[in-house]
Design goal:
The complex is a heterodimer. By secondary structure, chain A is an alpha/beta fold. Chain A has a domain at 206-263 and 682-737. In chain A, 72% of the residues lie in helices and 8% in strands. Chain A has a 7-stranded mixed sheet with strand order 7-6-5-4-1-2-15. The radius of gyration of chain A is 100 Å and the shape is elongated. Chain A starts with a strand and ends with a strand. By secondary structure, chain B is an alpha/beta fold. Chain B folds into 3 domains: 5-247, Purple Acid Phosphatase, chain A, domain 2 (4-Layer Sandwich), CATH 3.60.21; 251-333, no CATH class; 338-409, no CATH class. In chain B, 34% of the residues lie in helices and 24% in strands. Chain B is built from 12 helices and 15 strands. Chain B has helices at 27-34, 36-50, 70-85, 184-189, 266-284, 297-305, 308-322, 342-347, 351-357, 362-373, 376-381, 387-406; strands at residues 5-10, 55-59, 89-93, 112-115, 121-127, 130-137, 161-167, 194-198, 204-207, 212-214, 230-237, 240-247, 252-259, 287-296, 327-337. In chain B, the strands form 3 sheets. Chain B has a 6-stranded mixed sheet with strand order 4-3-2-1-11-12, with helices on one face. A 6-stranded mixed sheet of chain B has the order 5-6-7-8-10-9. Chain B is elongated and about 85 Å long. Classes of the chains: A alpha/beta, B alpha/beta. At the A-B interface, α2, α4, α7, α8 and α9 of A face α3, α8, α9, α10 and α11 of B.
């Protein structure tokens, strides 16, 4: 079969492109990269075999058309046009043989069942194959070449390698890392774990049985414990009852001894108490009254003894009690004091004049006293008057003397009348000259004049003293004039005269005034002197009167009138004092007498010694009186009280009697003689009652503790020991049982926990499931390995048989081809060990590894060609070589030409290349040049 | 005439059983699933109480293995205790999975009656103080019982119901008859009123008269145990027998198909699956799904090899969980269709054709797998591959090779 041409409707970059190979069996399609060579190659394959949808997608034109086209095929029996359009006939090929239309199946048959994959393997050769050849290890080279001869492409080899790799990764008999090995290891580990856990679980049932046993034993022990507890409780009751029984026996014994109180009435004590209750206060009262009565009686007797006889008491009372001794004594004392006082007064009474014996105060004297007083006053007034007048006279005379004295002095100062007159005249002249020069008349002026004069005289007379005095006087006058009298320019000389005149005038006035004063004074003096003489006359009259009185009362003779009254008064006082003293003395004495007699009587009455001081006696008497009074009063009271008591006693006696009778009856009933015995019996009775109660209580207790049993006293002693022993042994056993029980419970608990743990523990189950899971995974992995191993072995076996059956023919074909192109080698041989060797011209075997790269490539090409021819034994298929030689140098490339030329004799060869072919190449081939930009066109 | 009896017939509880094929499931979902047998048991107890049954029959394989995990034992004990509260008796026998080579591990309450030995034994059930039924059965004490135990069953007592509990499989006459093989005739001849069978997980009524019934298991454990799982509520009254199926499963196992069309992108597929989940949830409720992807090999094989489908399931699971859905996409398988024509391939003489036509004998396969199967540890997990499995794997291997070679571009 050959491709003679075709037309692309749309395919990749190709659009409506027609190409023509004519009848050429060697077609060279030249174009640069991207010129569309590969697309064209794909188009050829697509039309012949179709394509997977995924693959065809990449050739869907970008312009939106549908991939499709037709090829003109030339078979030995005629031409066929194959058309395939993606969306027509379900993408299947339609063939046209003449006017006949055939389907895809027809085409497949026509192509001897060739499919795309095998076509690709065998009938396409590309750069990659040769390049990979270059890269192949030398050791692998023979194998690769052999594969190339058997299957074409390296896919089988790749597959083999891949399978081997997968197998290695899955499992290795001695490995640890591969998946299955690792899983098997894990599986055995898991198996061990499962076994461990299973073993642990295996203990479950035995443990469960053990637990059951323990629980049964625990129940048993529990029962035994309960039994023991019951027994102990019974024994403890017995033990508890024993003391009660002992008490009971003792109480009975005591009761026996109390038989004597049997007659004692049951309410004896109550009766006795009732009676006693009534009786006791009454008796007490009776007793008290009796006692009181006796005491009163005793007091009465004693009082009688002490009492004075009535007469004596009365006298004593009269003497002592009726006398106010204190007042008496006070009075006496007062009198005494008065006496002393009066005596003293008398002694001290002052009399200015001796008391005249003839004096006795009387009415005459009293009457005269009034006259005396008047007389005395008159005399005194007269004396006073005369004194005053005498004084006034003296004063007047003094005044007159004074005036006289003053006049005398003025007289001394007064100049003579003549002089005065002169002065008076001078004064009148000078008053006329007064305004002209006052200076001249001024004393200073005069002084100056005098001073100048004096000094002049002195100088003249050479009397230096005089001159000096004159100068000094001068200086002084100047100074005075200058400083002292400067404003007053009155000259001294003139003023002096006037002053003198004025003075003289004044003095004369004064003198006349004094003269005028003296005159009245002298008149007054005369008047006074007249009064004085009058008084003298009056005095004489008075003195006459006085003489008359003296005549009448002679005792006044030596007494001046002035003291008459006084003296009489003093005498009178003395006279009175003497009288009073006398009276006092009299009274005092009387009293003394009365006192002494009374005291004496008192002593007598009271049988006191006579020499006892009176005060004491009085005291005693008063005491006796008081005592007696009291005694008498007490006696009366006692008598009253005694009477009352007697009445009470009678009343009580009436009440007491029936009660005492009752009591006596009670005692008789109780068999008691007296209270003491009754009390004793009552106590005994009480003890008995108590014992009875206790006994009842004991019996009750015993019945409560032990309803049935009862022991005798001897038994009890014996029993107690025994019971205690029994209890001890029972308790020991109980302890033992409890310990056992604890142990069993503990073991049961431990087991229960263990069992519960086991029951709740799902580890074993989980581990088992894990194991099963691993098993499944392992099974799957094992299967995977098995499938790959089978595939691998099958592949190997097929290869072997293929090698044996079909390869020899391919080999001889290749050998013949190879010898043609490589003249130094005779051919190819497959050794017995299945390796490919080359025979040289001396028939020596040369291992392919030893060949040069170029020779190996030639050999490869020969093998591929041979294979393609062999497979196309019924008919040849075009061989598509896509840039397979482009990587080689020119020389090497040239060595391919003869091979291709030789091959082209048998099958069409379509060579895709980017290189411009040499003439050698183009000479025998059809060249199709593809422009890079070319999209359509006819070549 | 004995009084009417109401009881529950359940079998193959497989408590604490491993759920298979959950490789893609979320860990939380896994634990939820592993708890599902217990949940189903609780459901069973609830049904018994609600329906006021007289007793419950558990016809073997109550536990997943003779290991009898303590978790399972405790769960069963608690269930029995709960039933005891309602005076519901429990009759139990052990099957080939939970055979009691050793002593039983649990002490059950008094309402539980266990057939302890391989000798057929009888318990009498009294209702209202009157004997009402004779319940016959035996337990496995070894993994296999080859004898025809069905022949040992005999009626006991007059005028009472005769109920047989039998954990066994129908005899085939082959060496595979290792689970107390029986024939229907043998059972029918015993003259029993009801045969409560166990062992087969798919429920099936083998006979109506007398009723010979497999109740199936109460909770599916892998994708092959799909659909509703549960027990039968049986009412015996005289000669008549009414059976009602009560679903008990906590979660269903289902297999669903997803078509992958040529040219589908992975995210499209993801969306498809997500959309389908809504329909599946409507159809199954809470379910564990196994997805079978159907589609062109060049897509599916590649995605599978690149582990893209696993990722897809994980993503969908996560999204489902966040949506609160109870669907679990537990796993998947791929059914890829190779884009090749066998007859054309056979005409060819290239390597791919040779690979396609190559044959690989069982011997070759054994030889190939020797490496792995020679590993003692692995043999514990997988003793051997069955012929069927080997063929399946071989086919897969071939597909793997062809797919790779055919996908050359």
């Amino acid at each position: 079969m050959q491709i003679s041409g075709g037309h692309i409707y749309d395919f990749g970059k190709w659009h409506e492109y027609t190409f023509e190979f004519e009848d050429s069996s060697l077609v060279i399609i030249q174009g640069e990269n991207e010129a569309g060579k590969s697309t064209l190659k794909a188009f050829l394959i697509y039309i012949l075999f179709g394509m997977r949808s995924r693959e065809i997608e990449s050739y869907r034109p970008r312009t939106g058309g549908t991939p499709g086209g037709r090829l003109n095929l030339r078979f030995p029996d005629g031409e066929v046009v194959v058309e395939r359009i993606l969306d027509q006939h379900n993408g299947q090929a339609v063939c046209y043989v003449g006017s006949e239309q055939k389907d895809q199946q027809w085409l497949e048959n026509k192509l001897d069942g060739m499919d795309a994959s095998i076509f690709r393997q065998v009938f396409t050769l590309d750069t990659e194959a040769l390049v990979s050849l270059q890269l192949t290890d030398k050791e692998q080279l023979g194998k690769v070449l052999l594969d190339a001869g058997q299957t074409g492409s390296a896919d089988v080899h790749k597959l083999e390698k891949k399978l081997q790799q997968e197998l290695q990764q899955l499992f290795r008999p001695q490995g640890r890392k591969p998946k299955i090995n690792a899983m098997l290891h894990a599986f055995s580990e898991q198996e061990r774990l499962v076994q461990e856990l299973t073993d642990r679980e295996a203990a479950y049932l035995p443990d469960k049985e053990k637990l059951q046993e323990i629980l049964e034993k625990t129940d048993e022990l529990q029962k035994r414990k309960a039994e023991l507890r019951a027994q102990i409780s019974v024994q403890k009751q017995v033990l508890q009852a024993i003391p009660w029984q002992k008490k009971e026996a003792f109480a009975k014994e005591q009761l026996k001894q109390l038989a004597s109180v049997e007659t004692f009435p049951s309410d004896g004590i109550a009766q006795q108490q009732q009676i006693q209750q009534q009786l006791q206060p009454l008796e007490a009262q009776f007793h008290v009254h009796t006692k009181e009565s006796a005491s009163i009686h005793k007091d009465l007797v004693s009082a009688e003894d002490q009492l004075l006889k009535d007469e004596l008491y009365k006298e004593l009372y009269q003497l002592a009690a009726k006398t106010d001794w204190t007042a008496y004594m006070k009075r006496t004392q007062l009198l005494e004091e008065e006496r002393y006082k009066l005596q003293n007064q008398l002694a001290s009474a002052h009399v200015s004049y001796p008391y005249p014996d003839e004096f006795a105060w009387n009415s005459y004297i009293a009457e005269a006293t009034g006259e005396w007083r008047l007389l005395q006053e008159k005399m005194m007034i007269l004396d006073a008057e005369s004194e005053r007048i005498q004084q006034s006279i003296a004063a007047k005379r003094q005044e007159i003397d004074k005036v006289d004295h003053l006049q005398d002095r003025i007289d001394q100062s007064l100049i003579s009348e003549k002089e005065y007159r002169e002065l008076h005249t001078k004064k009148d002249i000078k008053r006329a000259e007064k305004d002209i020069s006052k200076v001249a008349f001024s004393p200073i002026g005069l002084l100056l004049v005098f001073a100048v004069l004096l000094s002049g005289i002195g100088i003249l007379t050479a009397n230096w003293l005089l001159a000096g005095s004159g100068i000094l006087l001068l200086v002084g006058a100047v100074m005075h004039w200058r400083f002292g009298h400067q404003p007053n320019n009155q000259p001294g000389n003139s003023s002096y005269a006037s002053e003198k005149l004025a003075e003289q005038q004044e003095l004369r006035v004064r003198w006349r005034q004094l003269e005028e004063q003296r005159h009245p004074l002298e008149v007054q003096l005369m008047e006074l002197q007249q009064s004085y003489s009058m008084q003298i006359k009056n005095r004489e009259k008075l003195e006459q009167e006085t003489a008359m009185h003296i005549e009448k009362f002679s005792f006044l003779t030596d007494v001046p009138l002035v003291h008459w009254e006084k003296a009489v008064q003093e005498w009178k006082t003395k006279e009175q004092l003497a009288g009073m003293l006398h009276k006092v003395n009299q009274e005092y004495e009387e009293r003394q007498l009365h006192y002494t007699s009374t005291i004496d009587r008192l002593r007598d009455i009271l049988n006191l010694p006579m020499d006892l001081p009176s005060a004491k006696t009085i005291e005693q008497a008063e005491y006796v009186i008081e005592t007696q009074q009291k005694l008498r009063h007490t006696k009366e009271q006692l008598l009253d009280r005694q009477q009352d008591i007697q009445q009470h006693i009678q009343k009580l006696d009436k009440q007491l009697k029936p009660l005492q009778e009752q009591k006596a009856n009670l005692f008789v009933n109780a068999g008691a003689k007296d209270d003491k015995q009754f009390v004793y019996l009552a106590e005994q009775y009480r003890i008995k009652t108590q014992l009875m109660e206790e006994l009842e209580h004991y019996q009750l207790q015993i019945r409560a503790i032990l309803p049935d049993q009862h022991f005798s006293a001897e038994e009890m002693e014996h029993k107690q020991d025994k019971v205690e022993q029994v209890i001890a042994s029972l308790e020991t056993e109980q302890e033992f049982v409890e310990e056992e029980l604890d142990k069993h419970r503990q073991r049961a608990a431990t087991l229960q926990v263990k069992l519960a743990d086991l029951e709740s523990d799902t580890t074993a189950s989980a581990a088992y499931h894990e194991l099963q899971g691993q098993k499944q995974v392992l099974t799957t992995a094992g299967r995977k390995w098995a499938v790959r191993k089978l595939a691998y072995d099958m592949l190997y076996q097929t290869k072997r048989s293929f090698q044996e059956e079909r390869f020899p023919r391919v080999l001889s074909e290749a050998s013949s081809l190879f010898s043609k192109v490589a003249d130094q080698y005779k051919g190819l041989v497959l050794t017995e060990t299945g390796s490919l060797v080359v025979k040289d011209r001396y028939s020596r075997n040369i291992a392919v590894e030893q060949l040069s790269r170029g020779t190996i490539e030639q050999l490869y090409l020969c093998l591929r060609l041979a294979l393609s021819r062999h497979l196309g034994v019924q008919q040849s298929f075009p061989l598509l070589i896509d840039d397979a030689f482009s990587h080689t140098d020119h020389e090497r490339r040239e060595r391919f030409l003869p091979i291709l030329q030789a091959a082209a004799d048998v099958q069409q060869i379509i060579l895709f290349t980017w290189e411009q072919p040499t003439f050698e190449w183009t000479r025998q081939s059809k060249l199709l040049h593809l422009e890079k930009t070319q999209k359509t066109g006819l070549w | 005439m004995p009084p009417k009896l109401t009881f529950i017939h359940a079998a193959d509880l497989h408590l604490d059983s491993q759920m298979e094929g959950l490789t893609a499931a979320h860990p939380a979902m896994k634990s939820r699933l592993q708890d599902s047998t217990f949940q189903s048991l609780k459901q069973l107890v609830q049904c018994a109480i609600t329906n006021k049954v007289d007793f419950v029959l558990l016809a073997g394989d109550i536990f997943d293995s003779n290991r009898q995990s303590l978790k399972a034992l405790v769960a069963l004990r608690e269930a029995c205790k709960e039933l005891q509260k309602y005076s519901i008796d429990v009759y139990m026998q052990y099957g080939n999975h939970d055979f009691t080579g050793k002593k039983p591990m649990m002490k059950y309450p008094n309402n539980v009656h266990i057939f302890q030995s391989e000798k057929v034994d009888t318990f009498f059930y009294e209702k209202n103080g009157e004997p009402a039924a004779a319940i016959h059965g035996f337990s496995y004490t070894t993994r296999h019982i080859r004898s025809r135990k069905a022949l040992e069953y005999e009626t006991k007592g007059d005028g009472i119901y005769q109920i047989g509990m039998l954990h066994a499989s129908l005899g085939t006459g082959s060496a595979a008859d290792i689970y107390a093989p029986f024939s229907l005739d043998e059972l029918k001849q015993a003259g029993f009123d009801y045969w409560a069978l166990g062992h087969i997980h798919k429920r099936e009524v083998l006979s109506d008269q007398p009723p010979i019934v497999y109740s199936g298991n109460i909770q599916g454990r892998h994708r092959k145990e799909s659909g509703e799982k549960g027990c039968y509520l049986v009412e015996l009254e005289g000669q008549s027998c009414a059976m009602t199926f009560l679903p008990l499963q906590d979660i269903r196992f289902e297999t669903v198909d997803v078509e992958v069309k040529e040219g589908t992108a992975l995210y499209d597929l993801e969306q498809d699956v997500l959309n389908s989940c809504m329909n599946w949830e409507d159809a199954f409720g809470e379910a564990v799904l196994h997805i079978i992807f159907h589609g062109p090999a060049h897509l599916l094989m590649r995605w599978n090899q690149e582990e893209r489908l696993e990722e897809l399931l994980e993503i969908v699971n996560e999204q489902q969980q966040s949506l609160g859905s109870q669907l679990i996409l537990a796993g998947f398988s791929v059914q890829a269709t190779l884009d090749m024509k066998e007859e054309l391939l056979l005409e060819r003489n290239d390597f791919t054709a040779a690979l396609y036509t190559t044959t690989y004998s069982a011997n070759d396969m054994t030889h190939s797998l020797e490496e792995l199967m020679g590993n003692r540890q692995f043999r514990k997990i997988k003793q051997s591959y069955s012929e069927e499995e080997l063929q399946e794997m071989l086919e897969e291997a071939k597909q793997l090779l062809l797919q790779t070679l055919l996908e050359v571009e």
